[in-house]
Design a protein that fits this description.
This protein is an alpha/beta fold and 451 residues long. 35% of the residues lie in helices and 18% in strands. The strands form three sheets. It has a six-stranded parallel beta sheet with strand order 7-8-6-9-10-11, with helices on one face. It has a six-stranded mixed beta sheet with strand order 12-13-17-14-15-16, sandwiched between helices. A five-stranded parallel beta sheet has the order 3-2-1-4-5, sandwiched between helices. α6 packs across α13, α14 packs parallel to α15 and α15 packs across α16. The longest helix has 17 residues.
């Protein structure tokens, strides 16, 4: 465990949305001498800076300085920064400076690993993380509900809540591939590992699908015989070498496909990929000792997260859905397949993460009435759609506003307009939340005359 009192700690990356705020506050509280450094400007980081106004820290904005890193006792790295490609971190490493991350500091200080649940995957991990936390936090029949702390990639840092986390509390963490790369250095895996799915993603960072999978494998790699893994049968080949003989034990839960909604059951009211998320979360909660009736109550009362197949409303007889969080082709395909064919108008495209887009275009062409493409990948997706035999009309719109206007002009009463980009947002928006909000604004402007 890194000792922090009176140490010179550099936080690399404050983040425009406060990603470094929690860890900075924690470090100061532990007595560290903190420097926050970020290449963004003061104007871009104003909101995050305001949250640190009451702290005595140094802040360097607009650029990094090598000496800050080589003179530090410890560097805390933002997960979005690739240590292998960053010259400042390479200089720190050459100088023998220790490096860590917010999530590594957290798990090193949690009071009980046997009360941790980690969730990873290429899509659905935020929803499954939140769903598990919701189920665990429900009041139980004969005893009070345990306290549950949900964090990791999903939201703010839990470091500032450490003094409120007891050994009997549950800690549920969404873990990205970037986070897991760091945790692998600490040889840490959660007590209950949950894997939603594995598809090609973040190849712009990892380089190959094999390297991406290797990062994900850390979630089970350091588990013991007494730990548990919950994953789908379709993904077992990616984790079989890490799970080894445990595959034959009760500690590994392999899931097939959930029953179709026509068959009834606890997931009957949910659409395709929502049923899959509920199935995964239910099995993880069961492994945590939650009763079946409590799990069913949790599934039925879970509201969901914003920008994840969220129903915006019906305007002029047209139904609108915001699925801006669909940043991979597979998640967009799952969203499209949740709706009936031929009444669907889909908006696709965004930042190019280097993943294959042919299957996305094929599904859109065969499953949708019209396809509207935006962003950096828009032209490529449009060309791929036009090469398919599905029959969908294709419009290369460039911007989200134009795509919304075009979709509304073409849609009829009873049709559905779906934003499910299948790509990240960074080419035109700061994040997927901004993109989703822009979609809602464009819909209301076009349909209701809102400014």
């Amino acid at each position: 465990m890194h000792q922090l009192c009176d140490k010179r700690v550099v936080v690399m990356g404050l983040g425009r949305f406060g990603g470094g705020v929690g860890v900075t506050r924690y470090l100061v509280g532990e007595g560290a001498d903190v420097l926050v450094t970020d290449t963004a400007s003061e104007e871009q980081l104003r909101q995050s800076i305001n949250e640190l106004d009451d702290l005595s820290i140094d802040i360097r904005l607009g650029s990094h300085v090598t000496k800050d890193f080589t003179d530090a006792d410890l560097v805390v790295i933002n997960p979005a920064v690739d240590p292998q490609q960053n010259p400042y971190l390479q200089a720190a490493g050459d100088a023998g400076v220790a490096m860590t991350s917010e999530i590594r500091l957290l798990v090193d200080r949690l009071p009980e690993r046997l009360r941790t649940i980690g969730v990873t995957g290429s899509a659905g991990k935020s929803t499954v993380t939140a769903m598990i936390g919701h189920i665990l936090a429900l009041p139980q029949q004969y005893e009070p509900a345990p306290r549950v702390h949900v964090g990791g990639n999903l939201g703010g840092s839990l470091l500032t809540d450490l003094d409120q986390i007891d050994a009997c509390d549950w800690v549920v963490l969404e873990l990205s591939s970037f986070m897991l790369q760091g945790l692998s250095e600490d040889q840490w895996s959660p007590h209950i590992a949950v894997i939603t799915n594995i598809w090609p993603n973040h190849l712009d960072r990892h380089g190959t699908f094999e390297d991406y999978v290797q990062a994900k494998q850390a979630i089970v790699k350091y588990q013991s015989e007494d730990d548990c893994a919950v994953l789908r049968q379709q993904d077992i080949n990616h984790f079989s070498s890490q799970l080894g003989h445990r595959l034959e034990s009760e500690g590994v839960v392999l899931l097939g496909e959930p029953c179709d909604s026509s068959a009834g059951g606890p997931f009957a009211s949910l659409c395709g990929h929502q049923r899959i998320n509920a199935m995964i979360a239910s099995n993880a909660a069961s492994r945590a000792g939650v009763r079946d009736d409590q799990i069913q109550q949790g599934i039925s009362t879970f509201i969901g997260l914003p920008h994840r197949l969220h129903r915006v409303g019906i305007f002029g007889g047209i139904e609108f859905y915001n699925d801006s969080k669909a940043t991979t082709p597979q998640s967009a395909i799952a969203a499209m397949e949740s709706f009936s064919k031929q009444c669907l108008h889909v908006i696709l495209g965004g930042y190019d993460k280097g993943v294959e887009l042919k299957h996305l275009a094929s599904c859109a062409s065969s499953h949708c009435q019209s396809v509207y493409t935006v962003g950096a990948t828009g032209p490529a997706i449009a060309r791929l759609c036009e090469q398919q035999d599905g029959g969908a009309k294709v419009f290369c719109c460039g911007t989200l506003d134009r795509a919304v206007d075009q979709a509304i002009a073409n849609a009829n009463s009873g049709d559905i307009v779906l934003l499910s980009p299948g790509c990240a947002s960074w080419d035109q928006f700061e994040n997927y939340e901004n993109r989703g909000s822009a979609f809602i604004t464009a819909v209301r402007r076009s349909c209701c005359g809102d400014p």
